[in-house]
């Protein structure tokens, strides 16, 4: 039996907490980098003399490899050892951050951002799996997932604040330099303190063709979605690349169904909570991204906020996410189950986005934005631990790295989908209003209103999926410690029983 299927009970509480801190430090760097660049884009454009189309690739060059490699890297963690995968990804991310910081032209910056996306994907893909295999007791696991979820959910808004402060006080190069010392220390600590795992791939063949197919399909899917904002979803460009994506995915599915050592075992999709959590997670992130992206534009373009003021404007969400995910969510999950907590959280998020759908062109932060940050912060802080726990509850220990990679992949796909759809809707509706003679501020606000309302509908879709598909995982019997499930069949039986 490999080291990954044996619960890590020998580790002391202090060593596990240190390991959790190392894992979350690496994850925080990756999550921060997803948004820290956003508020620095005008400064980067001016410094490197980038065209508007090239400026978008400062974001996309990171998103495409990040979204495309999560699934593959997660599976490699299962097969070849998660510690090895995590430390390798973190090292690549740190070096790429240094290269981004010293970039003096657009080509160097875009190539470095691509490499940074590769490192970020490899780092993120196995983090959740390492946490759930390290903390086997339900109470400890809920707390650890709460910490991880806080990093996941609050990191994006913290990135907006940090990006604004560094850009305005020093310069944009420091949004990348700040990663270097943190990453270097994290790599050394991870190498010394994280437990080595043998992996389950010894003696098995690696599905190289399957790896190429799924990576190409996911990268192409993210590319198609993010570029649809410029070309349009009905354009020949979007339809052509979308069809190519579907063909790659279909070929991959056929290969996995017939292969002896599939990269993505079909049994993963028989776990009800895995598939339900992934679907709900994708829709929720798609809707929530309207706040992370469009609320920033509203504060800057309509309310006239600068970078630091914009960052401060999203801080209330992070301040609420912290106590929700770290303290309240684990207690509620233990008491009523993750499904009930998630349903309540999704109602709060949908309501918060609905409030943002009422913003006005002559509004103010305290009356138009701040009231929405309360249900959004509370809801997101409760939703992320619930979703992460549900997604991992159906996977076997041998497949937890893959489940972790799938969870993060859907988060990235959801963010890309939300950005493309909602920004396109906002820009299109604003353009129509401008064409009708509407004042610029009112036209922009009208576009943002529509996007926030559609984002709220995405979250309501997540609510429907959660209510109809997800079930609370079975509670361990009193006096019996939970044990690792040794086979996929037992995991499937557990999911069926919980239904």
TrEMBL record:
Predominant cellular place of this UniProt entry's protein: membrane
Write down the superkingdom of origin.
Bacteria
Q: Where is this region: Disordered?
A: 471-499
Query: Which stretches are tagged as biased composition: Low complexity?
Result: 480-491
The GO molecular function terms of this record are: transmembrane transporter activity
The name of this protein is: MFS transporter
Compartments annotated for it: namely:
Cell membrane
